[in-house]
Amino acid sequence: MLTQTWAMLVDAYRELCARKLFWITMGISALVVLIFAAIGIDEKGMSILWFRVPFGGAAEDLLSKKMFYVALFQGWGVTLWLGIIASILALVTTAGFFPSMVEAGSIEVHLSKPISRLRLFLTRYFAGLLFVAIQVGVFTTASFFVLGLRGGVWLPSVFLAIPIVVVFFSYLFSFCVLVGVWMRSTMPALLLTLLFWFSLYILNTGDFILVGFREGNREIVEARAARIERMERNARKSIVELKASEGVENYEPTDEEIVATMPLLARERAVQKDDMESVRALEQWTRWIYRAKSLMPKTSETVALLDRWLIPADERVEAQIRAKAEFQAKASSRNGRENTEDDLPEGMNPFAIKQEMESRSVLWVLGTSLLHEAVVLALASFIFVRRDY
Fold this sequence. Notes:
Elements: H1 2-17, H2 20-38, E1 39-42, E2 45-48, E3 51-54, H3 59-62, H4 65-94, H5 97-101, H6 106-111, H7 117-151, H8 161-183, H9 186-245, H10 255-261, H11 264-294, H12 299-310, H13 313-335, H14 350-359, H15 362-386
Antiparallel strand pairs: 1-2, 2-3
Helix pairs in contact: 1-7, 2-4, 2-7, 4-7, 4-8, 4-12, 7-8, 7-15, 8-9, 8-12, 8-15, 9-10, 9-11, 9-14, 12-15
């Protein structure tokens, strides 16, 4: 049984490797690694081959060499190349894998072998994942040596990119297999998979934006509450001092007197009420989206898991604190003055988004995504096994 399965797996893999897109993708991966290796950073700035881009201060003070190359590998190599471009090329290559098998003349040859339909289905499916795993493995291995030789950082954890990207691709490939088995056509399988991926992107983007505004509005509510408290305290102090000068001791001002003394207080309270309603509405929306995402594969969060395991938590926190300080400094420069305690924060909080995403457990990210994939594969295998060819 194992010999038959292994032989079928090798045949299916050879079928995929015989396609030109496999070698095109490998060639582009090599080019990406070469560009990756051509970029350097030192105390004078960033260099690309023999070209130099000077920085205003000491470049390594802004970003350590380790953080620079790790961020380059994660942001450019994994997220952009493997997570988007190479995945699209892999989908184009593997979209016809099942439709071509169920074509008249081809399916009879496969079914004539002494092997169950379910094993045939799973063997073809894992051959598609093996196709992607080898491409990711070659790219990651080359990047590992670039990180070590150019950045002086030998990080075995970069090899976690292989299972992470393969799992990410499996979400899309399982859906592509379902459509391919159901419709027996390559083009609808590819187009509907890309549409499915785009819908996941829209859902994730909506989640990021709403979380950012929710946390930003919470900060605004807290800052305005502190402002209102200061205004009330100052108004109360003025009234008490006025009454004391009139000979009235231990006077407790009424709310009407406080508002009359500080006319802006009524407006601030009204705005605060509206902001609190906005926060409650955003909390409701983020809960709905979180529940919807629990039923779907988490593509963005899966790829982002590499961030957690590549960079230690203390270094990530330090980088976020530095980035937040720079963000606030830029906000101050836009205002033309330093921020004071009466200034309210920005409406969108990009740092809260990252903290919220990293607070979501690996079990939720991978567990619910793989559960969705299992349901999709079960449906696809049921169609494949039960259909008459």
